[in-house]
Write a structure and sequence with these properties.
2 copies of one chain form a homodimer. The first copy, chain A, is built from 10 helices and 15 strands. Chain A is α/β, with parallel strands linked by helices and 318 residues long.
Chain lengths: 318, 318
């Protein structure tokens, strides 16, 4: 029988790419989204597929979530992707990440217990680690001192999932996402730069001095890692997901976008190596655990950025 | 000028012992409590002290908390002790620790930001670590996989405090409490055993096989550690607090209570070495970081238990 997947934040950027792959494998998918950020049109490509359905619900409402699972005829696995996706917004107002990043997890766990759903795949984040300086960030590093409300509420979610696992949840995969890029983009540095250059083609203003360096994973690689981890045996797994490189600088991204959108533009860098409170200047993210299971990204950071720039330019032109 | 302290969970067991010391040092204290568990009578000894005042408020209500801080004429330091104190109750209903252990922290942080209070001392817990097996639990160990909702929501609180510190909070002390005993007891294994033996003097039933071993700290030692850490220089400090021993078994506690309350009683042990879901059978808690600053407990676990048994028997007789 086809596996019944339920995907929260189902109209979001990563969900759309995941759902495409799940449906292609012959499984059934119910997408749940409150449409506060995501848009129903994003799911248009699936609407004629009988294996797909959509339910509008806020998953921080446990009773509504339980009802939605019942309405869907039950679920075998939940992919919990719903969260605030605008980290700087959550820095200025902590209640955003409380409600959208943490209470969504709380609601999902309560509904899973109520409806007896045994498997949870959770979209966690490298933001839980905070600023670890030059230390190589493997999954077991401590202490975890997140420096954004988003990171704090992802860590809070992991903590609650850990307690729920002890209390009877069957299987949990904690997936610590890196910076993920691709289409359909709704936020992020590439989309910002593309839009800024369209508005003012002669000049691109960049927060920080451009030396900030991060690893970027293309969303297709992210989904391939998620599906790979799903096939592994562990009952409680925690994995960093990312490319096998140290990343690219903000300067590289700015120049790549500039060269494609407005080649003559001047790039004006700011000062300091933090773009905003809660941002981390440098990040050495270990993916050794995942690599040991045989997975690796098809695209390193530089190629992922180059490709995502093309995809986002196409998205913005349409 | 006298330092203005604000103590949340101010009518609770640990707060009463802390407030006594703070007032004795000449500082001012405002106790805040919603009186859902704590009782106003617990604070009777301070009521005639002009340096003490009490405000009834639920500190998960940030606006009410901010108002209370204003009403108190501002605060220099907050000791945030409010939390669910009944861990097993929180295991069966996760919303208890959500509201009382996590959202209280969230409300306190929002109110501190609103009112410009610069210093937070937070009552965290060894429960954040989960079951680390035979590993020595120092402050930087990872991964943190709490196995109770209480531990999860204490870890969530630490995460939110970490993000708040990055966003401008002046100074934070994360105090990871062990099992704390003494009077006025409102819950815990000693009180349970005393009450059970009073109800059925010939027989004491014990959850688990009695081999479960934990370190216990007397509340007077806990408060002395809290005040010691307050005098240290760090802007963001995390300390395990506990005695310098591996603790005592449940069997020792049961026998100590039995010998004092009902010497002829039979002790009937259960099976397994976990009392309830979320409990940890054995726990090697490192206090090396705190010891390196010159502090140590006056009472080791065994003496702490023996003394607390006397205090709780006296409390129950009055």
């Amino acid at each position: 029988m086809a596996v019944r997947h339920l995907v929260t934040g189902g109209a979001g950027f990563i969900a759309v790419n995941l759902i495409r792959r799940l449906l292609a494998s012959g499984d059934r998918v119910v997408a749940i989204d409150d449409l506060s950020t995501g848009r129903r049109e994003t799911l248009a490509e699936f609407e004629t597929d009988g294996a797909f359905s959509f339910i509008q619900a806020d998953c921080s409402d446990a009773a509504r979530m339980a009802e939605a699972i019942g309405q869907a005829g039950g679920a075998d696995e939940i992919w919990h992707l719903a969260a605030n996706s605008d980290i700087p917004a959550g820095v200025s107002d902590p209640t955003i990440d409380l409600r959208r990043t943490f209470l969504t997890t709380f609601g999902v766990l309560a509904a899973m217990r109520d409806q007896g759903v045994p498997v949870l795949h959770f979209a966690s984040s490298s933001a839980i680690y905070g600023d670890q300086g030059e230390a190589l960030i493997h999954e077991d590093i401590g202490p975890l001192m997140p420096i954004s409300n988003y990171g704090a509420m992802k860590l809070a979610s992991e903590a609650q999932i850990s307690a729920a696992a002890e209390a009877g949840l069957g299987r949990i995969n904690i997936l610590r996402f890196p910076n993920v890029i691709g289409a359909p983009a709704t936020h992020g540095v590439i989309l910002d730069f593309v839009r800024k250059l369209k508005a003012t083609p002669d000049r691109l203003e960049v927060l920080g001095d451009g030396t900030q360096q991060k690893a970027y994973l293309h969303v297709e690689d992210l989904v391939s890692a998620m599906l790979h981890i799903r096939t592994l045996e562990g009952a409680r797994q925690v994995f960093n997901i990312g490319p096998a490189d140290d990343g690219v600088t903000v300067r590289f991204i700015a120049e790549t976008v500039r060269d494609r959108v407005s080649p003559g533009a001047e790039i004006a860098f700011g000062e300091g190596n933090r773009g905003w409170v809660g941002d981390v200047p440098r990040f050495r993210y270990s993916i050794d655990r995942l690599a040991a299971t045989g997975w690796r990204a098809a695209l390193p950071s530089q190629a992922a950025v180059t490709r995502a720039v093309e995809e986002i330019i196409a998205q913005e032109a349409s």
